[in-house]
Design brief:
- This protein is α+β, with helices and mostly antiparallel strands.
- The protein has a two-stranded antiparallel sheet. It has a two-stranded antiparallel sheet with strand order 3-4.
- Bound molecules: zinc ion.
- Zinc ion binds next to loops.
């Protein structure tokens, strides 16, 4: 089971439209969602990454880890190196 990053629907990997973006495969409930994603992937990648954010919202010292955004990775590394 995969999640459509555009509409959030749960989709079945084998019967869904799919594309590769940045080395990751994304699955969609329909070609309509696939096209929307292709038009502005960044908009939907933020939603997709929400589950990666393990930091509680109140903890400002925790760094949002987003593999799609190198600058955010840099923040994490700076903190780790100290
Ligand atoms: Zn969809």
């Amino acid at each position: 089971m995969k999640t459509d990053p555009v509409c959030g629907m749960t989709v079945t990997a084998d019967s869904s439209p799919q594309i590769e973006h940045d080395g990751e495969t994304y699955y969609f409930c329909s070609e309509h969602c696939q096209h929307k994603f292709q038009q502005s992937p960044k908009q939907y990648l933020h939603q997709h990454d929400e589950h990666v954010n393990v930091a509680p919202p109140e903890d400002k010292s925790a760094i949002y880890t987003c593999p799609m955004h190198p600058e955010i990775e840099q923040h994490k590394n700076l903190k780790t190196n100290k």
